[in-house]
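Kindly go through one protein, given below as sequence and tokens. The question is how this chain folds according to its tokens.

***
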Amino acid sequence: MNRPEAGGTNYRSPSFDPATGLFIVSAHDSYGIYFFKPEHGAVGWAGADYGVYGRGVLRAIDYQTGAVRWSHDLSGGAGAAGVLTTASGLTFTGDSVTNALALRSSDGATVWHSGIGRVENSPITYELDGRQYVLFGGGSALYAFALPR
């Protein structure tokens, strides 16, 4: 089976917070072993072991300097959730162990979390009847959250 190289942030959408100047991205630090056999020629490879090490992390990168301002461990393997930042200073995403998360955009501190099933989408926010909601897909359901009235 051919497997594409890992490490891109293609379907896990990143987000930019203009108030802090941070580009916030779900990353997956991983290591693997690649090898080739001379009998397969000078081009190509015989295989790989992708599971040597991998850890999911949310990183806040200063867009002007490239410096990582904060990191937040996503509790295991690669996260599947995209990232949403809001004007209120919150970052929403999901971790590797079935939690929807709200983090403070300025420093990555956890503000709230809820076990809803694996979050494999990008959270969205919307307003309905004057009330702001954030929506996650978790497991096989949609979850909408709002602050108490």
The chain has one domain: 15-28+55-145. The first strand starts at residue 15 and ends at 17. Residues 15-28+55-145 form a domain with the Lipocalin fold (CATH 2.40.128.630).
